[in-house]
Design a protein that fits this description.
Radius of gyration: 25 Å
Largest sheet: 9 strands, mixed
Number of domains: 3
Low-confidence stretches: 1-7, 13-29, 377-400
Number of helices: 2
CATH topology of the largest domain: Methylamine Dehydrogenase, Chain H
CATH superfamily of the largest domain: Regulator of chromosome condensation 1/beta-lactamase-inhibitor protein II
CATH class of the largest domain: Mainly Beta
Helix content: under 10%
Structural class: mainly beta
Distance between the termini: 89 Å
Length: about 600
């Protein structure tokens, strides 16, 4: 009896102390959690802990963190808890300004949030949502791609919705879907690449659809699902490469190999059919330009390219031991170890690494570091102090300093910018000179100087002139014009991703980019300067999405591939055929809708 009374006393005392702490307004910190699953997007990340808690961190430009906020500067460098009872999570890759997130709860309900510009949330609208919104019931898995989503229901049916411009959804045609559409039955896994998709059926058959750019479909080429192979137990898609893990433990990869992401010592820039790369594989994941592999012995291997950490390997390189799972994002990568610990590495300027650091000027980790989930947060460093790469840097709370004047210049990560509009809230800059050492460049939507945010609206003349190492360039959402000779003579340039804000492409802007094969001209472009795409002998596909194009300069298309196809909007076919006539291209170049 006495023992029981003592036990009651101590239980009551502990409860009183905890309650007292809460009533006093003091936080009772949760213990650190073990991670059960991880998902990485373009610049945001997520993990599900062993108890079903969902944690997110990184960029929150479109409300993709689901905490009711959004903004370019509202990044989170430390995991924040969003909901409980979660069994599955997936994040979109690609641009942060069109990012979205999805989670399945243990009761089978699907929740979506973030950007909804193409109906990717599946609620029948194109309105963004800043907090998780219930979309569907009876769901077992959710898979997100760039501007698109898929869900596998408990009955094995696969449903898709969102952007469908390249046949991404497999429903045929190019019409977007703002609400779920049924695609297949008997599905156990699904994934999206940049413009292609895949599904794994219960019988081990792999089905693919969408664009076969760079051989991403392994030889198939249809807007509806077609069978590619049998005997598969896991699938993953990268930006333009694809992979399948067979039941015998052999890993097969195919598609774009420009950066060694296939792992075959770069036998060719394109691997058009599935190729066995490695045996004894337990699990794998494909990212934008890289591949991650976990072998049955728990060793982690990676091949391909990551510009942020200067990683470039044409055959798989061993990175760590004790791995249970690898997840590849656009800019960063993650690993779950067998002990439930989460490790990340790669680019982390928007907090996507989860290491407590947000530094829009640049932050990267070359080797995997352990990330804490649910542990007490470290105190923020003085925001006026430059980041040392340790601790936490708070974004958007810097002490106000002198507003940079018009025509003044400054450098961020060895890139030079010039202020074109000095304004505390609506400032703009021109990118004057790039970093010549880089082989891949992401031109930011905004940059920050002295605590002030400036939109990057222009690429200056000769900003990347004769940068012969440059292979890939992706434009931020605010770039409206590209200056004369901006990328002229970039002889290694293979991929250019222009954004929808672009209006003007200057004279000789992309002249002499000999390895460029494809180009998409965005919807707002009005002017293409003289010689803009001249001397690009491999440029075979040009898609013009703009319906407001008014001026195309002399010899703008001189020297492009003799069998090139220029696709234009159907309603502008006759007008553009006349506008593009005699711009230097040979007579065999086709202009069609």
């Amino acid at each position: 009896m006495r023992v029981k009374k003592k036990r009651r006393f101590w239980i009551g005392a502990i409860a009183f102390l905890l309650l007292g702490g809460l009533l006093a307004g003091k936080n009772v910190q949760a213990a650190e959690k073990k991670a059960a699953k991880v998902a990485l997007g373009g610049t945001h990340s997520a993990a599900i802990d062993s108890e079903g808690g969902l944690w997110l961190w990184g960029s929150n430009e479109c409300g993709e963190l689901g905490n009711g906020k959004k903004g370019n500067n509202l990044c989170e460098g430390t995991p924040i808890k969003i909901m409980d009872g979660v069994s599955e999570v997936s994040l979109s890759f690609g641009s942060s300004y069109e990012a979205h997130s999805g989670a399945v709860k243990k009761d089978g309900s699907l929740y979506m949030w973030g950007s909804n510009s193409f109906g990717q949330l599946g609620d029948g609208t194109t309105t963004d949502c800043l907090k998780p919104k219930k979309i569907m019931t009876g769901v077992s898995k959710v898979v997100l791609g760039y501007r698109k989503t898929a869900a596998i229901k408990t009955d094995g049916s696969l449903w898709v919705w969102g952007y469908n411009g390249n046949g991404d959804l497999g429903t045929g045609g190019g019409r977007n879907h703002v609400a779920p559409v049924k695609l297949l039955d008997d599905v156990v896994q699904a994934d999206f690449g940049s413009s292609h998709g895949a599904a794994l059926k219960k019988d081990g058959s792999l089905w693919m659809w969408g664009s076969n750019r760079d051989g991403a479909l392994g030889g198939l080429n249809g807007s509806r699902p077609e069978k590619l192979m049998d005997g598969v137990k896991q699938i993953s898609l990268g930006h333009a490469h694809s992979g399948a893990l067979k039941t015998d433990g052999s890993l097969w990869l195919w598609g774009n190999n420009g950066d060694g992401q296939i792992g075959d010592n770069k036998s060719a820039s394109t691997v058009s059919a599935p190729k066995c790369i490695m045996n004894g594989v337990a699990q794998f994941s494909l990212g934008q330009w890289a591949s991650g592999i976990v072998k049955t012995d728990g060793s982690l291997w990676m091949c391909g390219y990551n510009t942020y950490i200067r990683f470039s390997e044409y055959i798989p390189k061993k990175l760590a031991d004790g791995a249970a799972l690898v997840e590849m994002g656009d800019t960063h990568h993650g690993m779950l170890k067998k002990d439930g610990s989460l490790w990340t590495w790669g680019g982390g300027w928007r907090g996507q690494l989860g290491d407590g650091i947000v530094n829009l000027s640049g932050h990267e980790i070359e080797k995997p570091v352990k990330i804490s989930i649910g542990a007490p947060e470290k105190p923020a460093v003085n925001p006026s102090t430059p980041s040392s790469g340790k601790g936490t840097t708070t974004v958007g709370t810097s002490l106000k300093k002198t507003l940079p004047k018009k025509n003044s210049t400054f450098k961020i990560s060895n890139v030079t910018y010039k202020v074109t509009k000095s304004d505390a809230k609506r400032g703009t800059v021109t990118l004057v000179k790039g970093d010549k050492r880089k082989t891949s460049v992401v031109i930011p939507a905004t940059v920050k100087k002295n605590g002030y945010v400036f939109k990057v609206t222009h690429i200056s003349s000769k900003a990347f002139y004769k940068y012969t190492r440059l292979k890939k360039v992706k434009f931020g959402k605010n770039v409206a014009s590209i200056g004369t000779n901006a990328f002229r003579g970039c002889t290694s340039l293979t991929a250019v991703s222009l954004d929808g804000a672009l209006v003007t492409i200057g004279d000789y802007a992309f002249s002499g980019c000999k390895k460029l094969t494809k180009l998409v001209i965005p919807a707002r472009v009005k002017t293409i300067g003289k010689g803009a795409f001249s001397k690009n002998g491999r440029l075979k596909t040009i898609q013009i999405k703009s319906t407001v194009l008014k001026k195309v300069g002399n010899k703008a298309l001189s020297g492009i591939h003799k069998k090139a196809t220029i696709k234009v909007p159907a309603k502008k076919l006759k007008v553009y055929q006349k506008l593009l006539k005699k711009k230097g291209q040979v007579s065999t170049v086709r202009i069609r809708k």
